[in-house]
Amino acid sequence: MTAAMQAVCALADIPDGGSRGIWPNARGQHQAFVVRQGGQVYGYVNNCPHYDRARLGWKKDAFLNGPGDRIMCASHGALFRITDGKCEIGPCIGQSLRPIAVRVREGHVFTEPPH
Ligand code: FES
């Protein structure tokens, strides 16, 4: 774990199979988000590779598609693999979300700040 990593939430704060926004900016917009699959947590910067300033979520803490098997951009519907952030369907196919380092330790989720 690097010195820059900070606790962002408890593992229990993320529903298993769900997502959660983290690192709110001064306007309350989440700069990154995490997705939980069992004990595994994946983290990405909250910017779509289609338009870099676009946020992905369609409402608070909602970053997944209906079945919950992919990350979805609310702007134009791009679908990304949860495990590596690669776009499989949509206008930015082949591009990827920017990952952030995530560690789970003693029931808490630590990440590096988004950049
Ligand atoms: S901004 Fe995300 S798919 Fe267009």
- List all distinct small molecules, including ions and cofactors, that are bound in this structure: FE2/S2 (inorganic) cluster
Multimer state = single chain
Q: Please tell me the total number of domains.
A: 1
Q: What percent of residues adopt helix (DSSP H or I)?
A: under 10%
Supply the CATH superfamily name.
Rieske [2Fe-2S] iron-sulphur domain
Shape: globular
How would you describe what is shown here?
The chain has strands at 6-10, 19-24, 30-37, 40-45, 71-72, 79-80, 87-89, 99-100, 102-105, 108-111. It has one domain (6-111): Rieske Iron-sulfur Protein (3-layer Sandwich). A four-stranded antiparallel beta sheet has the order 2-3-4-8, with no helix packed on it. It has a three-stranded antiparallel beta sheet with strand order 1-10-9, with no helix packed on it. With 115 residues, the protein is mainly β. The chain is globular. The model has no long low-confidence stretch (mean pLDDT 95). FE2/S2 (inorganic) cluster (FES) binds at residues 48, 50-51, 54, 73, 75-76, 78, 90-92. FE2/S2 (inorganic) cluster is lined by residues 48, 50-51, 54, 73, 75-76, 78, 90-92.
